[in-house]
Amino acid sequence: NETGYQEAYRPQYHFSPPKNWMNDPNGLVYYKGEYHLFYQYNPYGNQWGHMSWGHAVSKDLIRWRHLPVALKEDDLGMIFSGSVVVDKHDTSGFFGGKSGLVAIYTSAGESQQQSIAYSKDDGRTWHKYKGNPVIPNPGLKDFRDPKVFWDDQTGKWVMVLAAGDRVMFYSSTNLRNWSYMSQFGADQGAHGGVWECPELFQLPVEGHPGEKKWVLQVDINPGGIAGGSGGQYFVGEFDGKKFTTQQKGIKWVDFGKDFYATQTWSNTPGRLIWVAWMNNWQYAQDIPTSPWRGAMSFPRELSLKKVNGEYVLVQKPVQEINKLREDTRVWNNRIITPGTELLPVRGETLEIEAEFQLDTADEFGLIVRKGTKEKTIIGYNVGNQTLFVDRTQSGRTDFSKDFPVVTKAQMKPKNRVIQLHILVDRSSVEVFGNHGETVLTNQIFPDLKSQGLELYARGGNVKLQTLRIHRLKSAWQ
Ligand code: FRU
After folding, report:
1. Is the CB of 80 under 6 A from ligand 1?
2. Could you give the CA distance from residue 304 to residue 285 in angstroms, rounded to a whole number?
3. What residues does 464 pair with on adjacent strands?
4. With 90 as the cut, is the pLDDT of residue 35 above it?
5. What is the pLDDT, as a whole number, of residue 3?
6. pLDDT tens digits along 51-96
C-alpha cells in the first residue's frame, strides 16, 4: 500500500486511514462480497473538522483497500455519522427497479438534519438526494447519527437516531419520507453526557431456542464507565414502533477507555458484526500518531447470552483473525508461582488465549508490550473479582491526564476459571474476558522495541491450564 504502514504506533491489523483524522465508523454494509467501511474523516488534517465520509472495502474484514472520500461537505453542512442500507427492491426509486445502496447521514450545518445519498455502482460514487434534508431539524440542538434497518414486522424502514438525552424512532416506506414514531431513554440508562450513535438489532438468546431479544446500544459522551466516551446497551423488545425494556441497571458495552460509536454491518445474514472507533473524546485529538489519527477496533461478532438470569451481550473477535496467525505456541498445566515469568515469545502484534484456574494467588495475569521502562498489565484481582488493564506505564501517556489509568470490570470466575482472549497491536490492547462476556479496549503507545511478554502471580500460585499465543502478521503487507 501507499505508506507502508510502518510509522510509530501504526496499527498492523486494525484499520486506520493512511493519513488524517478519523472518528466513528459509518455506513457499514456488506454488499456483493465486500464489507464497506465508511468513517468520519477530515480530508484536510489531523484534527477533527470538515467531516466527510472516508471509505475502504474488504473481502474478509482483515485486509482493507482504501477508496476515495465518498461524501464531502456541502451547502447543508458537514457529513456526520450515519448508516448505509441495501435497498434490495428499490423502495427508494433511485435504482430503476434494481438494488442499490442508500446512505442515511446527518447534515451538520447551522442545525443537524438527516439527509440521504445513493450509489448505483456498489458504493464507488454517491449522489446526494435533491430533496435533502429528509428529516429537517425539529428544534433540537442534538439530532444526529441515524442508523436505519429494514423491519420485517412492519415491512418498513426504521431509523433510530440520537436526540440529546434520548433516542428517537422514525419509519419510512421509501427512505425519502419519514414519520416520527416514538422515543426512548430520557428516564433510563446513563446520562452523564450526550447520547450519540445508537444501534438497534435483534439477536437470538444462546441456549434458549426460539427466544429473541432486541438490543439498543447507545453511546454517551462524557459519562462512560471508564471516563469520557463509552457505550451502554439495553436489552428489551421492539414492536416496530417502540422500544421497551424491563432492564433496571446500566449495562456497559466495554469497560476500557477506547471503544466508541460502534456500528454493526448491515446485510450480513447469519452473523452480526460490529466495529468501533478505538478512541475517547477526552484525548482523541492529542494521541501521538502522525500522519493519521484514529483507528478502529478489531471487528467483533455479537451474540446474546443469559448469565445468572441477566442478558449479556457477548463480543468475540471475528474468526477471520485466524488468517493473520503466523505461528502458534501452546503451554498446558503450568503452575505460576509468585513473581513474573518471561515467556519465550515476543511481539508487538499478538493474539493470546489463556485459561487460569484460581489457586492461592490473589492477583495474576499477563504483562504485554514489556520494555525496559514500559509495560501494560492485564490482570485479575481475585478478592475484588475484577479484570483490569493497567496502562499507567504503557509508554507515551503524557499527552493527557486522562490517559495513564487503570480500567476495570467486574467479572466472576466460571468453575474457578478465568478465560482471557487478548489482541495486542502496536497501539492497542483488547481484552475479552470469559469468552467475550466482559471486554476492555484500550489504546497504548509503547516503544516498538517493547515486545516482551510475561506471566505473573501475586500472593500465591495460579494454575495456567492452557496458554496459546499466536504471532500475527500485518494485514497491510
Ligand atoms: C460521535 C460523534 C457523532 C457525530 C460525529 C461527528 O463520535 O460526535 O455524534 O455524528 O461524531 O464527527
Report:
1. yes
2. 34
3. 334, 356
4. yes
5. 56
6. 999 999 999 999 999 999 999 999 999 999 999 999 999 999 999 9
Q: How far is residue 366 CA from its own chain's centroid? A: 23
Q: Which positions ≥6 away from 226 have C-beta within 8 Å?
A: 255, 256, 257, 280, 405, 407
What is this model's ipTM? 0.98
Best mutation site among 196, 277, 283, 293 for ligand 1, i.e. most ligand atoms within 8 A of its Cβ?
A: 196
Q: Residue 51: CB within 6 Å of ligand 1? A: yes
pLDDT in tens, 308-327: 899 999 999 999 999 999 99
* Catalytic center residues: 24
Q: Is 77 in the pocket of ligand 1 (CB under 6 A)?
A: no
Q: Angle CA(63)–CA(32)–CA(177) in degrees, nearest 5? A: 115
pLDDT at position 448, please?
A: 97
Residue 436 grid cell? 467475550
Q: How many CB atoms lie within 10 A of CB 349?
A: 21
Q: Are 51 and 78 in contact (CB under 8 A)?
A: yes
**pLDDT at residue 341, as a whole number:** 94
In degrees rounded to 5, what are phi and psi of residue 322? -65, -20
Alpha carbons 85 and 82: distance in angstroms, whole number: 10
Q: How far is CA 237 from CA 201, 202, 281, in A?
A: 10, 9, 31
At 477 the pLDDT is 80
